[in-house]
Design a protein that fits this description.
By secondary structure, the protein is α/β, with parallel strands linked by helices. The protein contains twelve helices and nine strands. The protein has one domain (2-326). It has helices spanning 29-34, 41-45, 55-71, 102-109, 122-125, 129-138, 152-163, 189-197, 228-232, 246-270, 285-289, 310-316, and strands at residues 2-4, 7-9, 75-79, 90-95, 116-121, 141-144, 167-170, 201-207, 217-222. The radius of gyration is 19 Å and the shape is globular.
Length: 335
Amino acid sequence: MTAGPAGPVDPARRPSKRRRPPPGRIAPEALARERGGAIEGLDWLGRPPEAKAGLLVRFLAIVARIVLFGLFRFHVTIEGRELIPRTGGYIVIAAAHRGWMDPFVVLDALPLEPRVWFLGSGPSAFGPRWREALIHRVGGLLPVWRGGIGVEKHVAAARAVVANGAILAQMPEGTVSGPAGTIGPFRIGAALIALRTGVPLLLVAMAGTEELYVGRRMAARILPPTTLAELLGPGWDGRLPAEGSRDELDLARRLTDRFAERLGPVVEELHPRTIDPPDHPRRLRERLTWLLIRKGRLDRDASADITAPAETVAATQPVETDAPVEATGSSDDRA
């Protein structure tokens, strides 16, 4: 057994060589210029992130359920609801992130109140001015822009969410690119925020959202609530390194690996339950898969045939859209 940055590390649990996250699909610079700069987190929201679900939020939740589960006939099987804490003030870490439906799966798994706030990509969520205005009015998103000034703004946003008794949700992959039925590389931002807030953590595994059509089956499992100490294990002495230090980054990487070790096998277990036979009708498959997501490279496995036109792929590949310096895991590709 060798010594790690915060104690002994069992060689059997040493993470494999870290893979780089896939390239982003949306260039955010033009959107930022149109808005006079990339305004993030609480600066953009301009108010405390509330835990109470108002009448507008409740009305839109009903509309969303009618559309998703009535009109589109999506079927989401949720396991582990009995494990959800009775009060807010915790962070949700969710994976695998494979489509625009993922935030709705998280929202379906959790109670309407206390509210869930996603730390997610501004360039993906914003588009026309009316859409940004609606999101601002309804809430539920604290935007992240690739190329921002650092993780501090997102830590402040996270602290405000949990201090108000709401729930912060992050998807550490930061993009919907990746093969079905397995997690992709996690960015370390979610772990940094978890370290600096120190609040309980709720891990949620998801599968079946990479391809959408009428009647699509999806699945999610809520894992038992956990803590930093439990995830990092007896090799961690409980001390937090100085913020911004190399030791903090090393500890965040260890925590990120623990997230992946817990979520990965569950995603792989859930995935077969969401697969329909090849001859199963897939009505509106392309339209629903791309409904709230810009077409671009998705890095699916070789069997996937939902692809974008070459000119669209070329236009969307060059720039990653997640948070600065791997600051967050964001719902990167929600339009």
